[in-house]
Amino acid sequence: MSTIRYTGKRSAFTFLASVSFAAVLAVSLDSAGNQFLGSANAVFQETEADFLPPLPPRVLSADDLAAAQRAWKFFEQNTQSTTGFVNSVAGFSSTTLWDQGSYIFALISAEKLGIISREEASERERRFLDSFLKMELFENRLPNKAYNTQNLDITDYENVVLEEGIGWSALDIARVLLGFRALEKHNPSLSPEIDRVINRWDLGAFANKGELWGATRENGKTILLQEGRLGYEQYGARAAALWGLDVAAAMSAARNLEWVNVEGVAIPRDQRRSSSFKAITPILSEPFLLQAFEIGLNREGEILAHKVYAAQQARFERSGIPTMVSEDHLDQHPSFVYSSVFSNGSAWAVVDESGNRHDKMRTLSTKAVFGWDAIYGTEYVKEMRSHIEDLPEEGDGWQAGIYEDSGATNSVYALNTNAIVLEALHYKAFGPFLGMNR
C-alpha cells in the first residue's frame, strides 16, 4: 500500500484539476448509466416503472422550514463545548468520522436556511477544525473509527478508550473529505485550516489502486480490506475523487452490478457475496440520497436511485405498509441496523454489521422520507411525510422513525437523522452542495 502523504500544496489549479478529473469520470458514467437502463429493461421490461428525474430546487414551505428548525435543535443540544464535536446519538459522548461529516453538511444547511447566523456558524467551524488538528490518528496515519466527543480520546464503538485504536473507515473518511470540500466552497477563508488538517492524513492509505481501503485490528495486527459495497462505494469514490485520489475503479457500479426483481422493480444488487467478502451488501436509501444532496446524481446514480425508491413505493402499493428504508440507529438492541430493499440474498432484510437478521426492527425512516421527498416530491412521499410529521416534538430534534412491526416510535435521536433532514431541505431549496443538477 502507498504511504505517500498528501502534501497540502493546493493551489486553485490543483482543486479545479481534481474537480475536472471527477467530472470526466462522471461523463463516462452517464454512458454506463444508459447501458444499465437498457440492460434492466431487457430483463424486466413488463414490470419496470417509469423513470423519474430529480426535481429542480423550489421554494420551501412553512412546514419545511419548521422541520429544518426542529432538526437543528439536535445540534444545539448535543454539541460539546470543549471540542465542537457533536454526539452521534443524543446524550452519548461518542462519534464517528461519518457523523462529523454529516455535521458539516448540517451546519452549512442551517446557515443557508437562515436558522443560525454567520457568526454562530463561524465559531462552530473554527472549534470543529481546531479539534481535527488536535485529534490523535490511528497509527499516525488516518482518523480512528471512533472518538470521545468531550476529550477526543481514541475509543471503540462503545466509547471505551483504546490507545491503539480500532482502525479507520474509508467511507467515513470520504464523507468528511466531501464535507471539507463543501465547507471551503461555502467559506473559502477556511481553506488554510482545512489544508492543515489534511496535511496530517495519509490519504494514499485509504484510496489507492482504484479502490477504497479500510483498516481493522485483528489479533494485534492491522489488516487492510477493500471497503464499500454498491451505492456506498460509489459515494465514497466520488468524494475521494474531489481530492485527486486514485479511485477510478470504484467510481462506477458497473463492474459489480447485477439485477434482482423486488416488487416488480429491477433493483441493483452487488455481485460480491458476503460469504466471500465478509461484508454486508445492503441496497437502501442512504448513499443515493447523499450523492444527490452533496454532489448531484450522474446518469448512473439517477437510474439506481430511482429503482431503489420505486421498489419502496411498490411495496406500499402491494401491501399497504408505509415503506422508506435506510440505515438507522435504534432505541433498543442491536442499536444500529441497515433496513434494506435487498441485502445478503433477501428482499427487505434488516441486518446488522455482522449480517444477522433483525426484520422486526424495520422502520419507516425519518431521514429517508425527507430525502426522497426532496428528490422526487411524489404523492407517495408526501403521504409518508404525513406519518413522520406525527412524531412527537420533544425539543431534541427528529426521532429516527416508526417501527413497522409495532407502530411504536423509534425514539432515538441521532445526528445523522437530523443532519440528513437539514441536507434534504437544503437540496430542496438550493440543489447539491457541490456539482450541478442535471
Automatic annotation (TrEMBL):
- What are the entry keywords? Signal
Output the Gene3D superfamilies linked to this UniProt entry: 1.50.10.140
Q: State the InterPro entries in the record.
A: DUF3131 (IPR021478)
- The signal peptide annotation in the UniProt record is 1-22
Taxonomically, the superkingdom here is: Bacteria
Signal listed as a keyword: yes
Q: Name one Pfam family in it.
A: DUF3131
The DUF3131 domain sits at: 67-430
Name the chain's protein.
DUF3131 domain-containing protein
Organism ancestry: Bacteria, Pseudomonadati, Pseudomonadota, Alphaproteobacteria, Rhodobacterales
